[in-house]
């Protein structure tokens, strides 16, 4: 597919033209294109100008890479914690509704359905954000997401099937 006629000015490519030269020339003191987020669409282990989901989450050093990878691991662990919390809360709600008199169960069922819908939406948002993090196509970030999922499952998934039911992460 030929992309030569597309306007890439707003895509964070630093105005790169053919041959790797920026339109504004080289030698800017403000970091210029050397401090732009790289947008890889192929698998890489390179962390030069790695941005994770947001332009503000820009990895510029080994220290920021280590902290970023730890943050990604914690985010993935947090997702598994949210799933476990949601399952536990859903079980407690079901027991509570069944303990109510028959005429109050229908109204309580409607209320609990809304709460479960909120938890479901949060889980989906969280899973899609992890998918976007994974889609940096950076091997280190992919390993961090996977490691976080492993740790989260070990910590929170004792009563959960190992079969993944959510395909977006």
TrEMBL record:
The keyword Ion transport applies. Keywords: Copper, Copper transport, Ion transport, Membrane, Transmembrane, Transmembrane helix, Transport. The chain crosses the membrane at residues 63-82, 117-134, 140-156. The keyword Transmembrane helix applies. Its main location: membrane. It holds the Pfam family Ctr. It is found in: Membrane. It is a multi-pass membrane protein. Belongs to the copper transporter (Ctr) (TC 1.A.56) family. SLC31A subfamily. This is Copper transport protein. It comes from Neonectria magnoliae. The gene is CTR2.
């Amino acid at each position: 597919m030929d992309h030569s006629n597309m306007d890439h000015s707003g895509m964070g490519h630093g105005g790169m033209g053919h041959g790797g030269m920026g339109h504004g020339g080289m030698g800017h003191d403000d970091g210029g294109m050397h401090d732009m987020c790289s947008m890889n669409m192929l698998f890489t282990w390179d962390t030069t100008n790695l941005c994770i989901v947001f332009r503000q989450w820009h990895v510029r050093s080994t220290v920021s890479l280590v902290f970023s990878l730890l943050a990604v691991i914690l985010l993935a662990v947090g997702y598994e914690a949210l799933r476990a919390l949601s399952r536990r809360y859903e079980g407690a709600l079901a027991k509570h509704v069944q303990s109510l008199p028959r005429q109050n169960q229908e109204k309580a069922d409607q209320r609990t359905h809304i709460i479960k819908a909120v938890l479901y939406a949060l889980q989906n948002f969280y899973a899609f954000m992890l998918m976007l993090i994974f889609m940096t196509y950076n091997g280190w970030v992919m390993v961090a997401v996977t490691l976080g999922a492993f740790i989260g499952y070990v910590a929170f998934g004792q009563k959960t099937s190992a079969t993944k039911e959510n395909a977006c992460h």
